[in-house]
């Protein structure tokens, strides 16, 4: 009886040992297979996400450049307000001088040649 019991226990131990060895021998390959399957399934999606992100980055960089350019334009406009005030003053001065010149020339024409006018408003010319 002891012999049979001992053989049964030895058989159980060897079976368990064999099963453990089988699992240990095959487990890394199963894990690598599952890992490879996971990579194969998820890689195209990851590549698509990467290209989308690169596209968004390019668009964002363009928008950032545009905003920075607009900000610098606004800053330069605020800095140029003094120039615009100077231009406004010079234009007003020029308009005033033009009006003075026009009124002075109008007086000169009236005072220099009060000659007789023909019918129809033409000046009478003498000698030609």
Automatic annotation (TrEMBL):
<keyword id="KW-0458">Lysosome</keyword>
<feature type="region of interest" description="Disordered">
    <location>
        <begin position="98"/>
        <end position="128"/>
    </location>
</feature>
<dbReference type="GO" id="GO:0099078">
    <property type="term" value="C:BORC complex"/>
</dbReference>
<dbReference type="Pfam" id="PF10167">
    <property type="entry name" value="BORCS8"/>
</dbReference>
<feature type="compositionally biased region" description="Basic and acidic residues">
    <location>
        <begin position="119"/>
        <end position="128"/>
    </location>
</feature>
<dbReference type="GO" id="GO:0005765">
    <property type="term" value="C:lysosomal membrane"/>
</dbReference>
<comment type="similarity">
    <text>Belongs to the BORCS8 family.</text>
</comment>
<keyword id="KW-0472">Membrane</keyword>
<protein>
    <submittedName>
        <fullName>BLOC-1-related complex subunit 8 isoform X2</fullName>
    </submittedName>
</protein>
<dbReference type="InterPro" id="IPR019320">
    <property type="entry name" value="BORCS8"/>
</dbReference>
């Amino acid at each position: 009886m002891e012999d049979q019991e001992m053989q049964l226990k030895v058989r159980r131990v060897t079976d368990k040992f064999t099963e453990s060895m089988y699992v240990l021998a095959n487990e890394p390959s199963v894990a690598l297979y599952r890992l490879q399957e996971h990579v194969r399934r998820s890689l195209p999606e990851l590549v698509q996400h990467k290209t989308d992100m690169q596209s968004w980055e390019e668009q964002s960089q363009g928008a950032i450049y545009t905003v920075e350019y607009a900000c610098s334009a606004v800053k330069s406009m605020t800095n140029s307000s003094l120039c615009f005030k100077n231009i406004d003053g010079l234009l007003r001065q020029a308009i005033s001088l033009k009006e003075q010149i026009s009124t002075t020339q109008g007086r000169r024409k009236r005072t220099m040649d009060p000659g007789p006018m023909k019918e129809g408003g033409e000046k009478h010319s003498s000698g030609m």
